[in-house]
Specification:
Pfam families: AAA_22, Cdc6_lid, WHD_Cdc6. Belongs to the CDC6/cdc18 family. InterPro entries: AAA+_ATPase, AAA_22, Cdc6_C, Cdc6_lid, ORC1/CDC6, Orc1/Cdc6_arc, P-loop_NTPase, WH-like_DNA-bd_sf. The protein has about 400 residues and is α/β, with parallel strands linked by helices. It is built from 18 helices and seven strands. Helix content is about 55%, strand content about 10%. Strand 6 and strand 7 form a beta hairpin. The protein binds adenosine-5'-triphosphate.
Length: about 400
């Protein structure tokens, strides 16, 4: 049996495209970050008091997705830590993954070598433990809260408020916060006290343009791909597609990586622009699949109702979708949600690009929406059936 494993591994190793594929993955923090010199300089200036063991101001960083916020923050902290490791420590928490106040506090405590049970304590108790722990250690603690909008939208900004006030309870140690978000409007929703404290310093990351993305891709391609595996037209196309999509470097790098994987799968030794086109379709399909499979149960049911309804007609009204949904809920023996909620679900599905809901005026009958699908029926069915056993058993 181990022959099979060796055989597969040896063919994988024989790829002609990648030298180090992992350098194109989103978690990799490169040694140089072109076109972010100003942001790096500004963060270093704000954090400079660390050199004198003094607490820096809190920083609030915002900019659209893929504009380098996380990479730049990690890069600066890593490099400052190399120089002043006796003056501070830093803890990075992604609050989309650790998306409750409990998990965030537990993550921070665990980084400080303090074991925390998975559940069972109050957040107030965790906070007390954190203060106690920090009072034992000397240095300044920089806490990076990445994607904080995700957590605050679900749980409110109480934990941020507590963090910004924690220094009053600390003796030797001090906390500085770096909050990162890609939702620019999010700042306005914060409690004014949190806003002014977290936003002592604000840094904006603008989107990259196509030329900047080309530089980023070229630099990364040099490290990750074999020398002759790529030509300029491929880099240009990846950069142009990602620039159109609000200047997102992650998207540009994903396009390049997936195009490389497609070329390698086909045994080629060079990536072509048609591989990039295929990569674009593949990435979009994965994105849609991910959205669909993580939808809440009733949203999935509404979609199935739409699929059934569209067998006989080309579009459906909101009322027709609701009727079809009620029938399904009844058949499955689940409690249905209100028509108002179904209407909200339809808006959400429209916003993420799964359906199209066009408002039409029906004269004296008022306005309604004409609902149709914006993605293929196959992918909806596949994602929902594969992610929800109850719906799958009804469908089969
Ligand atoms: N200037 C740059 N040079 C090289 N690589 C970059 C640059 N900016 C971003 N990247 C790369 O692009 C990807 C996305 O960047 P990053 O995660 O920092 O974006 P972000 O702004 O934090 O996005 P999000 O808000 O979605 O988390 C990462 O792989 C990162 O290494």
């Amino acid at each position: 049996m181990s022959d099979i494993i060796d055989e597969v591994l040896s063919t994988l190793g024989r790829g002609k495209i990648f030298r180090a594929r992992e350098l194109l993955l989103p978690d990799y923090v490169p040694e140089t970050l072109p076109h972010r010199e100003n942001q790096i300089r500004k963060i270093v200036e704000i954090l400079a008091p660390l050199a004198r063991s003094e607490k820096p101001s809190n920083i609030f960083i915002y900019g659209l997705t893929g504009t380098g916020k996380t990479a730049v923050t990690k890069f600066v902290l890593k490099n400052l830590y190399k120089r002043f490791s006796s003056n501070f420590i830093y803890i990075y928490v992604n609050t989309r993954q650790s998306d409750t106040p409990y998990r965030i506090l537990a993550d921070i405590l665990e980084s400080l070598n303090s074991k925390v049970p998975f559940t069972g304590l109050s957040t107030a108790e965790l906070f007390r433990r954190l203060i106690r722990k920090l009072n034992e250690v000397n240095p300044i603690v920089i806490i990076v809260l990445d994607e904080i909008d995700a957590m605050v939208k679900k749980h409110g900004d109480d934990i941020l408020y507590r963090f910004t006030r924690a220094n009053n309870e600390l003796n030797k140690s001090k906390i500085s916060l770096i909050g990162i978000t890609n939702d620019v409007k999010f700042v306005e929703t914060l409690d004014p006290r949190v806003k002014s404290s977290l936003g002592e310093e604000e840094i904006v990351f603008p989107p990259y343009n196509a030329e900047e993305l080309e530089d980023i891709l070229k630099q990364r391609a040099k490290l990750a791909l074999n020398e002759n595996a790529i030509k300029d037209d491929v880099i240009k196309l990846c950069a142009a597609l990602a620039a159109r999509d609000h200047g997102d470097a992650r998207r540009a790098l994903d396009l390049l990586r997936v195009a490389g994987e497609i070329a390698e799968r086909e045994g080629k030794d060079q990536i072509t622009t048609s591989d990039v086109e295929k990569a674009r379709v593949e990435i979009e399909r994965d994105r849609v699949y991910e959205i669909l499979s993580t939808l809440p149960f009733h949203s999935k049911l509404v979609l199935i109702a739409i699929l059934k309804g569209l067998r006989d007609k080309s579009t459906l009204t909101t009322g027709e979708v609701y009727e079809a949904y009620l029938k399904l809920a009844n058949k499955m023996g689940v409690e249905s949600v209100t028509q108002r909620r179904v209407s909200d679900i339809l808006n959400e599905l429209d916003m993420v690009g799964i359906i199209t809901a066009k408002v039409v005026n029906r004269g004296r009958y008022g306005k309604t929406k004409e609902i149709s699908l914006a993605v293929s029926e196959d992918i909806i069915l596949k994602a929902i059936v594969e992610s929800d056993e109850r719906i799958a058993s009804m469908w089969n």
